[in-house]
Specification:
Elements: E1 10-12, H1 15-18, E2 35-43, E3 48-57, E4 60-68, E5 77-83, E6 90-95, E7 101-109, E8 115-125, E9 128-132, E10 135-139, E11 149-150, E12 158-164, E13 167-175, E14 182-189, E15 196-200, E16 207-214, E17 220-226, E18 234-238, E19 246-249, E20 255-261, E21 267-275, E22 278-286, E23 291-296, E24 304-311, E25 314-321, E26 329-336
Antiparallel strand pairs: 1-2, 2-26, 3-4, 4-5, 5-6, 7-8, 8-9, 8-10, 10-11, 12-13, 13-14, 14-15, 16-17, 17-18, 18-19, 20-21, 21-22, 22-23, 24-25, 25-26
């Protein structure tokens, strides 16, 4: 099924109008300028459409997200869309599992060039949480996907995977060994199915959702959400074999964290900002010890969980939001940077 022209609504904005809003005005030494080129609504068929990710595979765009009755405590299913141009989208898969709330899908391309969908799988009985275990599904052609297969252990939630030099790396958040809350453990895998523990992150206050990326020197960078204490996200860096980490507070609370390293080495993050007026999805400039919101996207209410791809000198970002009539919908934003960002 293709989205209609009425559903795909383009919002074109100028760099002067939105690049630096009054809430996030920057000094001369602040983040470099960035232009929000467009925002399009690409899907809203389900009652609740949320938790996105985005990737390019075999020359096409793929966007995935959860469909359900509400934010949580339902039998969530994972939708996968494909597009040749980022404008017209077709559903190629709906991954389901009886009595399981499939959640937070994440896309990556494996070392042997297959599309991999990483999925959280939660169990609820009469609205009460009973357990969870992550799943994976694979496709060699972007059209036929394997049934979700369980990985790791009961209680794990491997949240996002990044491949580097033929190895998949991801962080699972799980019940803390001591006390309440959660802890984060770094894993690695050669095939996305069998996983080997690398190290536990020495982070307090219930760390959970983590995105990993690699810089040009092969160092691993981590952006970590935290739910207790001051709730600030933390940013870490480690050299191979990624067991010795340096951690810094980011200066802000940040939900559904995603980030990307551009060709010029600059880092940009997408996620939920918890402002006085409510939650919004933002694009933030990121360093090893700061997150600085630069653009607030059309968003509000139930929102965030972006996916980010650099393509043909533009940053593409999927996300979801419920600012339009209170219904959560899937959006695709495009950003343009100064010419030297692509060098």
């Amino acid at each position: 099924m293709k989205t209609s022209n009425a559903l795909s609504v383009a919002i074109v904005v100028s760099s002067f109008a939105l690049a630096f809003s009054a809430a996030h005005a920057q000094e001369d030494a602040g983040p470099p300028p960035v232009e929000l080129v467009s925002v399009e609504r690409i899907w809203d068929d389900a009652d609740h459409n949320a938790f996105t990710d985005l990737v390019r595979f075999e020359g096409a765009w793929y966007c995935t997200f959860r469909e359900g009755d509400g934010h949580v405590r339902g039998d969530g299913a994972i939708r996968v869309l494909r597009s040749a141009d980022g404008e017209e989208w077709t559903s190629v898969a709906l991954l389901e599992e009886e009595s399981i709330d499939l959640r937070d899908p994440k896309l990556s391309v494996t070392a042997d060039n297959r599309l991999m969908v990483l999925i959280g799988g939660s169990v609820y009985e009469d609205g009460a949480y009973r357990g969870r275990q992550p799943r994976v599904s694979f496709s060699s052609d972007g059209a036929e996907f394997t049934p979700p297969q369980r990985i790791l252990d009961e209680g794990d939630w491997l949240w996002r995977v990044t491949w580097h030099e033929g190895i998949a790396y991801g962080v699972s958040y799980q019940p803390a060994d001591e006390g309440e809350g959660t802890q984060c453990v770094l894993f690695r895998s050669e095939d996305g199915i069998e996983w080997e523990r690398v190290t536990r992150f020495d982070i307090a206050d219930s760390p959970n959702e983590v995105t990993l990326r690699f810089d040009e020197d092969g160092a691993m960078i981590a952006l970590v959400r935290r739910e207790r204490g001051d709730t600030q996200a933390v940013i870490g860096r480690a050299e191979a074999p990624y067991t010795d980490w340096d951690w810094n507070p980011s200066g802000m609370r940040f939900g559904g964290p995603e980030f990307i390293i551009l060709p010029d080495g600059s880092m940009w993050a997408g996620g939920r900002e918890y402002g006085a007026g409510g939650a919004t999805t933002v694009l933030a400039h990121m360093t090893l010890d700061t997150l600085t919101p630069v653009i607030t996207l059309p968003s509000g209410g139930d929102t965030s969980y972006p996916g980010m791809v650099w393509h043909e000198d533009e940053l593409w970002m999927s996300y979801y939001a419920s600012h339009e009539e209170g219904k959560s919908r899937i959006y695709l934003a495009r950003f343009r940077f100064p010419a030297d960002a692509a060098e």
